[in-house]
Amino acid sequence: MTIRFAGTERYVATDDLTMAVNAAVTLARPLLIKGEPGTGKTQLAEEIARSLGRPLYEWHVKSTTKAQQGLYEYDAVSRLRDSQLGEARVHDIGNYIVKGRLWEAFASEEQPVLLIDEIDKADIEFPNDLLRELDRMEFYVYETRELVRARHRPIIVITSNNEKELPDAFLRRCFFHYIRFPDAATMARIVEVHFPRLKQELLKEALDSFYRLREVPGLKKKPSTSELLDWLKLLLAEDIPPEALRSADGKAAIPPLYGALLKNEQDVHLFEQLVFMNRRATR
Amino acid sequence: MLVRFFLMLREAGVPVSLTEFLALLEALKARLGTLSIEDFYVLGRTVLVKDERHYDRYDRVFGAHFRGLEQALAGPDARALPEEWLRRMAELELSEEERARVEALGGLEALMQALRERLAEQAGRHEGGSKWIGTAGRSPFGAYGYNPEGVRIGQDGSRQRRAVKVWDRREFRNLDDSLELGTRNIKLALRRLRRFAREGAAEELDLGGTIDATARNAGWLDLKLVPERHNAIKVLLFLDVGGSMDDHVRVCEELFTAARAEFKHLEYYYFHNCVYETVWKDNRRRHAERIPTHEVLRTYGADYRLVFVGDATMGPYEILQPGGSVEHWNDEAGSVWLGRLQRAYPRHVWLNPEPEQRWEHVPSIGVARQLLEGRMYPLTLAGIDRAMRVLNSR
Predict the structure, then answer these.
(1) Phi, psi values for residue B348, rounded to 5°
(2) From the CA of B145, how many Å to the nearest CA of chain A?
């Protein structure tokens, strides 16, 4: 197998991320991705699918999601209703089995990419319930006494936001990568990919004030890559000149449209106070 | 060789199992990567380490195990400093005079040795100055410097990535859970507290489940019960304020307040250094509105869990002597009050933000621990875990 993932024209993958993805693909292990919010965890699966030309199945996990729902669901209520209406199809239980995302991925004609998004949102037992399915790539449908087996072992990407600890047995079966917050050089590449015609000076000024903002101590939610991209989009849309990002004394300017970067009123408040204090100090 | 690495990882507390070790061997066999040591570092981390909290431990073990080895492994494209190249550069680039000065520093070998030693000493990135490695200085090492025998390190692209080995930079240090609480891991700590709060297994009717099961049963009633989740925990928080403690106390207060919804009751009181006959609820009016500790003892029943937060760093007489308080005259010693609180609330712990290794050197911490019968825990994720376990046990 010689498929290699190396980022795409829309997604900048660092060397260690590339290595992690390729290791997971080659050895057919699920890849668990963690990292600060907004560092492109979910996007990764889309980009893997894109660059390898594989279909993508997304399974977004919520707090109420059960592992069983990824396999299949037995729609008992509509069967009950049908039985009262005297429908003929009620005799075949197979008519009421609804396939889940995992089943769909298993049934795929070519090797698919399966994204299990935010696995930590679900109940603590959720990962444990999927052990055998991820290990052997098969499961049993009790209602129809049928064994479903993957035609091609999917490439599985799992993301987590660290809301819950994942069980050891589950972790042992996965490869793991922690996406770090990109350094300034990588960030410049990421912005380049998203806004190819951004003026160099605007980019530099914007990145400077972005990193300055991240340095502000005590922020509840530091702005992340996705917020930076949103903010740049706004700056472009409003046609803000680079000079506006630079203040007269070289520091302590409130960046315009900073609402896109700070998502929390306490943070905005704290930031304004700091700027105010700074101004008084430099005066 | 790798077996030893594997065992060292386990010793350092990275939970690696045989499955993962075999997976690593499999990955090596599949010829992933170009077999450079950086690739091996990343590959090993991907396969063996499953939690960013353990990245730092992995880095340390990796550094310890592979130090020296990288010299032997270094191929032509290794990013370790290629001595051959340096030597040739030195011959080509340096004038007679400059070469003499290199000799003055002890020759190239000595220079490289000194470099290695300094890398070992130096922790962070550095600019300017004349000793450390970094940019724009007059030290023999680092990029963009003035020193003619300077070793250029990391002159293209992401500078910081080259000068020091990735694993020696130890960037994941603050993800380790034996670290004290900060803004990042406060969320994790909160989760521990929540788990602590959710106890109790009374059963209640699961309405949705019952309807579902009944439908599956084609209309025959099938009752389902689920364990009831109720928050029965009551917490009494005693926080040490004033002086160096304020930051830690704030973190801790936020922590418990954020978990407040999970507790049935959460009450907090402040004290300074040690508990005496009065405590207070409002820090700004601590001298005006004091509450007798006896009143606290009367108000809250024995089912409250008592959590002290404080560094317990003071003169031992502040705990042991009547009149020992630095703020006022106390008729009874702090230890007496501590004893009363302990008897009133059998389930109690003390969280101490001081690093655990320092405890032995502070006499008053020793005294407090003795009084608490060892129930003092560091204010770290792991410490909170242990403390909550003690609070839950009967």
Answers:
(1) -145, 150
(2) 21
Closest residue on chain A to B46 (Cα): A176
How close does chain A come to B376, measured CA to CA in Å? 25
Any CB–CB contact under 8 A between A277 and chain B? no
pLDDT tens for B357-377 read 888 888 888 888 888 888 888
Span B49-55, average pLDDT: 83
A266 touches chain B (CB under 8 A): no
CB contact under 8 A, B27 and A27: yes
Q: Tell me if chain B has a CB within 8 Å of the CB of A215.
A: no
Residue with more model confidence, B255 or A233 = A233
Per-residue pLDDT tens digits for B156-169: 333 333 334 556 65
Q: Answer whether B213's CB lies under 8 Å from B224's CB.
A: yes
Domains and CATH numbers, chain A: 15-66+108-179 (3.40.50.300), 184-281 (no CATH)
Q: B283 to each of B168, B269, B279, B280, B306, how far by Cα in Å? A: 44, 9, 10, 7, 20
pTM of the model: 0.57
The ipTM assigned to this model is 0.71
Interface membership of A175 toward B (CB under 8 Å): yes
Taking contacts as CB-CB distances below 8 angstroms, the residues of chain A near B51 are 171, 176
Test A27 with B45 for CB contact under 8 angstroms. Answer: no
Whether A172 and B20 lie within 8 Å, measured CB to CB: yes
- Of A27, A97, A177, which to mutate for an interface test with B (greatest number of B Cβ within 10 Å)? A27
| Residues of chain A with confidence (pLDDT) below 50 | 1-2, 248-250, 252
Q: How far is CA A74 from CA A130, A144, B213, B243, in A?
A: 18, 10, 12, 62
Helical pair B107-121 and B83-93, crossing angle rounded to 10 deg:
120
User: Taking CB atoms and an 8 Å cutoff, what residues of chain A touch B15?
Assistant: 168
Amino acid sitting at position B25: L
d(CA A212, CA A245): 12
What pLDDT does residue B106 have? 57
- Answer yes or no: are the C-beta atoms of A163 and A119 closer than 8 Å: no
Residue-wise pLDDT tens digits, A47-85:
888 888 889 999 999 888 888 888 998 888 888 888 888
What's the rounded mean pLDDT across residues B35-49? 83
B350 forms beta bridges with B308, B376
Interface contact flag, B23 A19, Cβ < 8 Å: no
Sign of CA dihedral A199, A205, A208, A212: negative
